[in-house]
Amino acid sequence: MIMKKNSLQSPITCMIGSSAVLEGTFRAKEATRIEGTINGDIIIEGVLTLGDKAVVNGNIISTGLVTAGKVVGNIKVANNIEILGSASIKGDIECATMVMDENAYFEGTCKMNRSENKDTEKKKA
User: What DSSP string describes 68-100?
Assistant: First the structure.
């Protein structure tokens, strides 16, 4: 997968290959790249990168997300999500900011949780 210059790039220290199939909850405290299949929830304390062959059947919680793969489940990202052109997401997204390429597929709702919006709401109250 070719990453754009402005992608959420960070050193990958944990990798799951394309032939791997994991069942159950997967947790990591570092930047992680997944090329295989995960049938269960993913919790990452760092940026999660899903390659174009990645399939996730479960919910994702991470600091950041770059996806070119397929996700069926809800996504909660503390910072930024980047949905590349080959990606497919069926589920709700909660994030601070989102970038979605042309040809990417998204079916669900998106809630933007930006800190400046919260500050503005507090001032109005």
Answer: -SEEES-EEESSEEEE-TT-EEES-EEESEEEE
The mean pLDDT of the chain is 89
pTM for the model:
0.84
d(CA 120, CA 71): 33
Domain ranges of the chain: 14-124
User: CA 47 to CA 64: how far, in whole Å?
Assistant: 4
Question: pLDDT tens digit string along 73-96?
Answer: 999 999 999 999 999 999 999 999
CA distance 83 to 27: 21
Distance CA 115, CA 117 (A): 5
At 98, list the tokens: 């989102």
